[in-house]
Specification:
This protein is mainly alpha-helical. 85% of the residues lie in helices and 0% in strands.
């Protein structure tokens, strides 16, 4: 049990340490750690956890780490995985909060942040592509995706409605 807990902490520490830009940017590295490196979950199980983490209040990266930790080692695993993913941000904020306030006011800070935002968009697109390969498995799921993508581009409403609509379409099209 200790080995899995150490492995959970180390894996999610790496996820928290090496991804900048929030939860969606963490998904590709989290997927690599959980599926490819350790084989803890199948791609479908990982996608299910990401879907639940998205619907649950709070940051997706923390929710996903908590669910994956729970799946692997119960409540203790959820605490360890969550601690792992938040440790880098917590330490960085504690150490650099005063410096960051001063640095953000510097002229080069805007350029730096623009570069980070561009990288973040690339990581989110990569996560979308990777998750899409697992989620869009046939014509009905492709139609659900297309309909909700078009609706989300045309209507600026809460993502909760699109999640609920996707779940409703899933229940209608896959009633088993």
């Amino acid at each position: 049990m200790t080995a899995i807990l150490l492995s959970l902490y180390w894996s999610f520490l790496k996820v928290g340490l090496f991804t900048i830009g929030g939860g969606y940017a963490m998904i590709p590295l989290m997927e690599a750690e959980v599926i490819k490196v350790h084989g803890w979950l199948s791609p479908a199980e990982f996608l299910d956890i990401i879907a639940v983490a998205e619907m649950t209040p709070g940051p997706i990266s923390i929710n996903a780490a908590t669910f994956i930790g729970y799946t692997m080692a119960g409540v203790t695993g959820s605490l360890i995985a969550t601690l792992g993913v938040i440790t880098p941000s917590l330490i960085l904020l504690l150490l650099l909060s005063r410096i960051l306030i001063k640095l953000i006011q510097k002229p080069g800070a805007a350029s730096f942040l623009n570069g980070l935002r561009s990288a973040l968009v690339a990581l989110i697109l990569l996560a979308s592509y990777t998750l899409g390969q697992t989620a869009i498995i046939d014509l009905p799921t492709a139609l659900i995706f297309a309909a909700l993508l078009i609706a989300s581009l045309l209507r600026h409403v809460s993502p909760l409605y699109f999640i609920a609509a996707g779940a409703a379409f899933g229940l209608i099209l896959f009633p088993y």
